[in-house]
Every structure is written in C-alpha cells, then in structure tokens.
Amino acid sequence: MHLRYSYRVYPTAGQRAALAKTFGCARVVYNDGLAARKEARKTGRPYPKATDLQKSVITAAKKTPERAWLASVGVDPLIQSLRDLDTAYRNFFDLVSGKRDGRPVGLPRFKSKRDARQSLRFTRNGFRIRSNGKLNLAKIGDVRVKWSRALPADPSSVTVVLDAAGRYHASIVVDVELEHLPEVDAEVGIDLGLTTYAVLSDGSVIDNPRFLRKAEKKLKAAQRELSRKAKGSRNRSKARRKVARAHAKVADTRKDWLHQQTTKLIRENQAVYLEDLNVRGLARGRLAKSVHDAGWATFRRLLEEKAARYGRVIGIVPRAFPSSQLCSACGHRDGPKPLRVREWACGACGVLHDRDLNAARNILAAGQADRLNAPGGPVRPGVAIPRRARPVERGTHLGDLRTTGIRATGAGGIPTR
Predict the structure, then answer these.
(1) Is 275 annotated as catalytic?
(2) CA angle, corner 384, sides to 6 and 287, nearest 5?
(3) CA distance 226 to 229
(4) Catalytic residue list contains 356
(5) Considering only CA atoms, which of 323, 317, 328 is closest in space to residue 374?
(6) Are 29 and 37 in contact (CB under 8 A)?
(7) Does the pLDDT at position 54 exceed 90?
C-alpha cells in the first residue's frame, strides 16, 4: 500500500532560487510538450510518444539557444513533468472511453508561472536522505527537513511543493504493508450535520468546531488589507501571502482535527456506516460556507483510507435511503419532516426520537443489512462493500507540528521508529 508522508522543509536563500529555477524549467517543458501534442492534433498527425516527446522538448531543446538554460537544472523533474502530462491525457481519454469513473476531467491546460502552487517530483535517482537527516536533491543541495514523524520504509519518490503561503514541503511516498488492527465487536452508524458535526448511533455526539467561522474576523482584516494594496506592488504580494497563511492555518487545523476523529472511530469500531451525501450540491446552496467548513468529503475519504489500511469496514448507505423518516424502533415510515423538527414521535409505536440519533441508528441498521446480505457484492445500489486496500498516495499533512524528537538513525539517514 502506498502512503504519502509530508514534512516541512526549510531551503536556504540559494536553494530557494535553485528551486524557483527548476519550477520554471519543469513548467516550460510541460507547456512545450502540451504544445507539441496540440500541434499534432491540429495537423492530423498521431500524438508523439513519450520517448519522442522527451527527446524533442528536453534533449534536443537543451542544444538550442532558446532552451539552453534547461541544462542548468536536474533532468529528473523535467522527465516527471512530461509523465504528469501523459497521466493527464490518459485520465481524460479513460474518462471519455468509460474506463475511468469519478468527476469529469478535461484536456490538459497550459501552466502559468502565477499559479499559487508549484511542485517538483524526484524519483530514486534524483534524491537521497543523508545520515544527518538532510534531504539531498539533485542540483539543489542538502535541504533541512523537520522530521515530525518517522518514515516506515524507504521512500520511492519525493515531491517538493511550494504552496500559496510560501511554505515548502517534501511529500514522500513509501510502500508499506497493511497493519490490520485486532477485531472488535462494535459497529457504528454516523449521521453528519452542521449544528453538530456528527451524531453516532451509540448516542455519542461530535461537536462542530467551525474553524473557518472562528477565524473569519482575522481573515476579513487580512483581506481588507490586501484590497488596499496597489496591483503589481511588492506590498500587495506580501499581503496576499498573509491571506494565504491565514487560510492555510485554518485548513491545517481542520485536517489535524479530522485525522484525530477518524483515527478514533477506526480504532474503536470494526465497521463504520455513513450516508452518501451530495456534498458538491450542498456546497452550491445557501449553506455553502458551512458545508465547506465542515469538510465532510475529507472526513469520508480519511475513513475509507484508514479502514483499508487497518482492516476495518466502511459502508456507504445511498442518499435515497429515508434515514430521517423511518422509526428505528418499529420501522414505520413517518414521512418527510422539515429541518426545524429536531424531535418527533412515531405515529405507529409512539416512541419519541431525536432526529439525528434516530437517523444514525437507521444508517447503522441499513449498513449492517447490506453487509450481511451481500458478502460478495452489493445488493443495494450505491452501497460500498468492504474491500482490500487500494493503492493510494495520500496521507497526513503535518505542516508545522512540533518535532517528536525523532532523529535520522536508519539506513541512508531515514528516520525510523
């Protein structure tokens, strides 16, 4: 299973200049490759193969006066930039041909030097972790890394990311074995909301922290300061970075909190059942800011990834399931109710229900029924059946968390636990 570990890195002034130059070269190579393929399509010729494209926009381009400066940076990030272009084309064609599911993706577009996020990927030939814990990048040098946690295995690739807040991170991919947790008997259904973040079928309640709402005053002040700066000035650039840092702090705090909640749920329950919410649709309505602040999609994604890694079960109940209309005691369907109704009594058995707790219990019952009745595949459309871990390259993003005292003592300088 592939995992991605992110660490904050602190390049020197010279290393930042070298990284900026490499960012620009990788962007130019990507745009040149895209232009070559667009020209081939326009003239009716077949798309150039990856090897031919690499020879034309990297190897041959270095020998021309217009692109001679490509030789001053490492070749590995340039090759990976063309591979990213191949991946973008492959995703588009797979979606058109029906081989790929998920959200729509278009054809690749040209990159701009004004993009808020810049990235470079180095493979095994382009990086090395020194015995003193520094990360050596080809033609960049030894970069200081803040090892906030140990790497579980030797890395296979490193992606250096510059975000909108001006922070540098090293995103390291490792291949690890599955770590199945001991089985437990507990299973839980979760009803997500905005007043309270989540209500569990066992009666537990997770309060909504509302990180964005709490930081709105500071964000508004920073945004007002940005709007007063002259466009193109250095002061405007500083103000823009200040706004980006404020937003990054909110995002990092939310992600850290979501990691804590999802880890607790996965450790304490053998199976977790959720409702398939239309988050994208809700995020376009009048509650858009609150929906974005809640991060429901990230909550679900983290649960699925951790369940795959630790041998737990995630079940998704389809959004058409009437979780708020059914009585969890007798199963009577009492009809739809407006959101202002927080408690209601069943018309058949007379049991008084809390709206969210009753919905969580119905989600638990529906998820268990589909799991028991469909050990080899889904019976109800839209219900996810437990599956083995899929190869993902996602993981924790720790940002500026304080160091845990881990030192680089492993082979090749890799921190080990």
Answers:
(1) yes
(2) 70
(3) 6
(4) yes
(5) 317
(6) no
(7) yes
Specify the pTM.
0.84
Q: What is the pLDDT of residues 98-134, one digit of tens each?
A: 888 877 889 999 999 989 899 999 999 899 999 999 9
Among the listed residues 76, 187, 252, 275, the single catalytic one is: 275
Annotated catalytic, 191?
A: yes
Backbone phi, psi, residue 294, to 5°: -70, -35
Query: Helices 296-310 & 234-268, crossing angle to 10 degrees?
Result: 50
Composition of the chain by helix, strand, coil, percent to 5: 40, 20, 40
What was the pLDDT predicted at 374?
55
Residue 177 has pLDDT above 60, yes or no: yes
Instruction: For residue 206, give the 3-state DSSP assignment.
Output: strand
Over residues 361-394, the pLDDT tens digits come to 999 999 998 877 654 444 443 344 443 333 333 3
Kindly report the number of other CB atoms within 10 A of residue 315's CB atom. 24
Catalytic residue (one of 187, 191, 252, 304): 191
Do the strands 313-317 and 271-275 form a parallel or antiparallel pair, or are they unpaired? parallel
* Cα–Cα distance measured from residue 27 to residue 120, given in angstroms and rounded to the nearest whole number: 10
- SS3 (DSSP) at 197: strand
Which residues lie closer than 8 Å to 100 by C-beta, 6 or more apart? 91, 94
Q: Do the Cβ atoms of 171 and 161 come closer than 8 Å?
A: yes
CB 270 within 8 A of CB 187: yes
